[in-house]
Amino acid sequence: MKVATWNVNSLTARWERVVAWIEDNGPDVLCLQETKQDDSKFPFAGFEALGYEAVHNGEGRWNGVAIASRVGIDDVRRGFGTIEDDDGARIIGATCNGIEVMSCYVPNGRALDDPFYARKLSWLDRLASHVGAVPPQRALIVVGDFNVAPEDLDVWDPAALEGSTHVTGPERDRLRAIGGLGLVDIVRDRRPGEQVFTWWDYRNGAFHRGWGMRIDLVWCSPLVAAGVTDALVDREARKGTKPSDHAPVVVTFELPGAP
DNA sequence: ATGTCCCAACTTTTGGGA
Fold first, then answer.
1. Would you tell me how many other CB atoms lie within 10 Å of the CB of residue A74?
2. Residues 6+ apart with CB under 8 A from A64
3. How far is CA A206 from CA A157, A179, A209, A216, in A?
4. Taking the model in full, what pTM does it have?
5. Residues 123-162 of A with CB under 7 A from strand B
6. Residues of chain A with pLDDT under 50
7. Is A158 helix (H, G, I), strand (E, B) or coil?
8. What is the pLDDT of residue A257?
9. Tell me: the pLDDT tens digits for A42-83?
10. Partners of residue A140 on adjacent β-strands
C-alpha cells in the first residue's frame, strides 16, 4: 500500500498538477493539506474520475485538509471531535483498507511573540490527545504539514533560523511527544543522517539554493512501520510550472498481517 | 534573504498569510 501526503497550497490552483502526479504515482491514499476551498468547491467528481473516493474538511480561503483513497474510505472524522477545535479546518481522519489515516495541517505560528505561536503549541498538544494511545495492534498513519522541523539536520541553516518558528525547543518537544506515543517519523527512520527537505520558500530562489526544511512528516504506528519498504520525498514535484512550495512525501508498506 | 504565490474583495490593485 502506498500512502502520500502533500501540502498543495490551494487545490484550485494545483489541480492539474495533482491529477498529473496521481496518474504518474498511483498512490492508494493521498492526503492533502491547504486545499483552501470550502466543501462546495472541492473536486469530489474529479477524484472519482481518477478512481478515488475523497473526503474533505474545508473552510474556504484558508487551511483545508482532505483524504483521497482508491482502497475504500470509512469512519470519517472531521476535526478533533470533543477536543477544543477552533483553529480552522486542520485535521481529517478516516479508515482506508483497515489503516487509520489522519491528514493534518499544523498552524504555522507566524512568530514567537505572536498569539498564533501559542495556539500552534496548543494544537500539537491537542493532536497528541486526539491520537491517543498506540497499542501494538493499532494500524495508524498520521501525516501532514507539521510546520516544525524535527531537528537541526532538517533545515538548511539552523543559524539563519534562530528566533524563528519551526525550530524552537517547545515546538520540537511537541513532535517528541508524538513520538512518545509510539509513532515513528518514518522518513527519518528509513534515512538516518540524510538531509531530506519537503518545503522550500517560493522567495529568494530558495529551491535552487537548497534552502529548505523537512516539515511534512509521516508518522507510522509500530505495526505499520514494521512493514515499510520505502519512504521518499518526491522533490521533482517541486519543479516546473506552478508548483506547490511543498513536495509530496510517499511511504510504501506491506499491509499489517499480510503474509 | 524577504527576490513569490495564492486568496478575497466595497475586485482590475491591495492587503493578509504562508
1. 12
2. A11, A33, A34, A35, A36, A37, A38, A56, A57, A58, A89, A105
3. 12, 30, 5, 17
4. 0.98
5. 160-161
6. none
7. helix
8. 79
9. 999 999 999 999 999 999 999 999 999 999 999 999 999 999
10. A100
Average pLDDT value for chain A: 97
Measured CA to C1', the nucleotide nearest A60 is B7
Query: Residue written as cell 462546495?
Result: A40
Q: Which nucleotides of B are covered by protein (CB under 7 A)?
A: 1-8, 17-18
Residue A259 cell numbers, joined? 503474509
Place of cell 505572536: A114
Q: Where are the beta strands (DSSP E) in A221-256?
A: 228-233, 249-253
Residue whose C-alpha is closest to residue A103's, from A146, A148, A50, A74: A146
Q: Find the DSSP H helices in chain A.
A: 11-25, 44-49, 115-131, 169-180, 186-190, 206-209, 222-225
C-alpha angle A90/A5/A104, rounded to 5°? 20
**Chain centroid to CA A79:** 15
